[in-house]
């Protein structure tokens, strides 16, 4: 008798409003790669993160899908993954260049997250902008 009760509890959970999203779904995002230092064509890719998943998960998924997107990062002891290169273009401390992380939200606001790719949790239909920039 215990198993059927558990099963019906699980079914009930799935039927509760709001709950299915936590089980299923993909949160679609776009990734725009752009260069503000040396003019070069932008590239846009589509990928997704899992429910409440972190950005780097979607970036890894995109990289593995072989759509021409690749990236490397270094692990910072305090802040986690720090983006080093995108599509072969490497940041240079000497030239004071880095990969800035920006997010264009569905309300068309562009924000500069105060966390990196290992901490940022994208929202559905966010356009993540990886912008080669100087500081
Ligand atoms: C200077 C600075 C930068 C410089 C670092 C280059 C340099 N050589 O100066 C630049 C402009 C590149 C930078 C970039 C970013 N930064 Co910054 N940065 C700082 C700042 C003001 C000082 C760091 C420092 O020099 N510490 C002293 C040295 C001696 O210690 P250190 O451990 O060697 O410092 C290194 C790390 O801090 C690392 N670093 C800097 N920022 C970041 C961000 C992330 C996510 C990681 C993993 C590492 C990292 O670079 C430093 C130099 O090598 C701090 C705030 C603060 N007051 O501490 C924010 C700070 C560390 N940065 C922050 C953020 C969010 C970013 C960005 C993600 C911003 C963005 N949206 O693009 C990007 C990183 C993107 C990426 N490529 O992954 C946050 C991190 C919070 C968090 N929990 O993730 C902080 C705390 C500021 C904030 N907004 O609150 N940053
Ligand atoms: C995201 O975009 C898809 C497809 O255009 C749409 O069906 C969905 O409602 C959007 N979600 C949000 C939260 O904007």
Summarize the structure.
This protein has helices at about 1-15, 20-25, 55-65; strands at about 25-35, 45-50, 70-75, 80-85, 90, 95-105, 110, 125-135.
Descriptive account of the structure:
The chain is α+β, with helices and mostly antiparallel strands and 135 residues long. The protein has one domain: Beta Complex (Ferric Hydroxamate Uptake Protein, Chain A, domain 1). The chain has 3 helices and 8 strands. The strands form 2 sheets. Strands 2-1-8-6-7 form a 5-stranded mixed sheet. Strands 3-4-5 form a 3-stranded antiparallel sheet, covered by helices on one side. It is globular and about 45 Å long. The termini are far apart. The structure holds cobalamin and 2-acetamido-2-deoxy-beta-D-glucopyranose.
Structural class: alpha+beta
* Residue-averaged pLDDT: 89
User: How many helical elements?
Assistant: 3
CATH class: Mainly Beta
- Topology-level CATH name: Ferric Hydroxamate Uptake Protein, Chain A, domain 1
- Overall strand count: 8
The small molecules bound here are:
cobalamin, 2-acetamido-2-deoxy-beta-D-glucopyranose
Structural Rg: 18 Å
Q: Tell me about the biggest sheet?
A: 5 strands, mixed
Strand order of the largest sheet: 2-1-8-6-7
Strand content bin: 35-45%
In total, the number of domains comes to 1
User: What is the helix/strand order?
Assistant: HHEEHEEEEEE
Which CATH architecture? Beta Complex
**Uncertain spans, ≥5 residues at pLDDT below 50?**
none
Helix coverage percent: 10-25%
Distance between the termini: 65 Å
- The outline comes out as globular
């Amino acid at each position: 008798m215990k198993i059927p009760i558990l099963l019906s509890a699980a079914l009930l959970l799935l039927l509760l409003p709001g709950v299915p999203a936590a089980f299923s779904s993909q949160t679609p995002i776009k990734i725009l790669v752009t260069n503000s230092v040396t003019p070069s064509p932008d590239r846009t890719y589509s990928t997704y993160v899992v429910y409440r998943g972190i950005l780097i998960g979607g970036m890894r998924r995109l990289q593995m899908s072989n759509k021409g997107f690749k990236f490397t990062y270094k692990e910072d002891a305090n802040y986690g993954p720090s983006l080093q290169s995108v599509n072969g273009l490497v940041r240079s401390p000497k030239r004071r260049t880095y990969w800035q992380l920006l997010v264009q939200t569905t309300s068309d606001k562009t924000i500069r997250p105060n966390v990196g790719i290992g901490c940022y949790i994208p929202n559905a239909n966010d356009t993540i902008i990886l912008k080669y920039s100087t500081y």
